[in-house]
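Issue: ligand-bound run for flavin-adenine dinucleotide - logging full I/O for the record.

Environment: standard queue, default settings, no custom constraints.

Inputs:
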Amino acid sequence: MVMGSLPEQVDLAVIGGGVGGYVAAIRAAQLGLSVALVEKDKLGGHCLNYACIPSKTLIHIADLFHEIRHAEKFGISVSGAALDPKKMLEWRMGVSKKLENGVAFLCSSNQIDVFNGAATFLDSGRLQTTRGVTLEFKHALIATGSEPAVVKGFEFGGNVIDYKQALMLDYIPKSMVVIGAGYVAVEIGTLYAKLGSKVTVLARSDVLSHFDKDAVALVKARMAELGVTVITGVTPASRTQTSITLSDGRTMDADVIVVAVGLVPYTDGLELHNTKVEMDEKGFIKVDRQMRTTDQKILAVGDVVGEPMLAHKAMRQGVIAAEVAAGQNSAYENRIVPAVIFSDPEIAIAGSIEPADGISVTKFPLSALGRAVALDSRKGFVKMAYDQDKFVQGVEIVSPEANSMIAEAALAIEMGATLEDIADTIHPHPTYSEAVQEAAEGALGRGIHFFYGKQPKQA
Ligand SMILES: Cc1cc2nc3c(=O)[nH]c(=O)nc-3n(C[C@H](O)[C@H](O)[C@H](O)COP(=O)(O)OP(=O)(O)OC[C@H]3O[C@@H](n4cnc5c(N)ncnc54)[C@H](O)[C@@H]3O)c2cc1C
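Outputs:
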């Protein structure tokens, strides 16, 4: 590694060591490129350190704590179950650290030069880090991610915190108000309710308003059961260190106010004006299907290039960008990006289940599934959308383990599978995955474990 003023020459300089950036760096190294990775904070980026992994770690702990205390129906009663928030935080931080170390190990194993510091473009062929390293690159890749959006009057500070801080508390707040209605607001609100906070979610219109109403109804009913109050049609007006006042004049306790109103692309400090990279009106970097920006030598991936802002999309784009930098003719042409909301119950979606011309939608309820009855998780379903030629176009799963089950649907849609392909594939019993098979069978008029009404006789 060359330090000081002598520029180091690399085939690919990656800016940002999050899931988009480090995946691209590893793929590029596999293809024989010399790679430098510049990260100003922690390897693994937001996903591993502040967002996906920490939130799912805490959701698991909250679920476990809640289940332990509510298992009487299974004949289990536990008295004195207690939570140690400091230990919980220790575990959550330890998980991120292990994964961060894992990324560092993979980088060094692949002979990727990792530079700590923030990168700034000097021009379309050179960048500099805050630690004084200059890199001359054949290609650069911007993978700088996103940052939490701010609500006017509720800027971060004091008891107003963002998702990162909400996932790093070493105590359980007595009262928590979550401003926001998307999946992050629902995940954080639900997990703290299970840990014992009195949670209120403030939604301008409704929670998860862009999602299927049937699925959202189940999530909202469960939130109500857990004591989460969802207030719609209001905006936050003012606050003190312990309370919040709403636009309708109501005031409520708020030890902590979590602002979770979305993510905005992060390009601060890159000095993109020194390059030909262009952004759209929302600040996302413009890219083509090969992840090339408007500057021939510079590529970009992940949250910084637009929706959906999801880790698995960033990783896929990272692979494409690396292959393009290595001269391959790769392109980001995936038909769908599956999405999971780790709510209770989980919602997972691949493709579209919107009714449309030539599209039919079938629904199989979990109440008809042996596994769901056994585990008392009957409130859920699988919806499957298919076209006139019976090609699967979309699947929505509302169920425990939906997060893993949706991969089958994603594969089916990518491969152009038909209803028969799914229905005739043997799914192991007794599992939640059978619900996907059952939905396909139902669509074909040959559902076994749910009575869809009298079907015409089949030859
Ligand atoms: C609470 C929460 C939960 C989430 N859960 C999920 C989930 O379950 N599943 C999912 O798919 N997605 C989830 N997401 C979204 C996911 O976190 C992002 O889509 C993903 O992290 C984007 O990856 P990225 O590589 O584009 O950016 P990031 O992971 O944000 O990484 C960008 C990196 O670039 C670095 N950087 C920025 N500027 C510079 C610079 N100038 N020089 C050097 N380094 C720089 C940053 O320090 C950062 O490490 C969640 C988001 C939130 C907020």
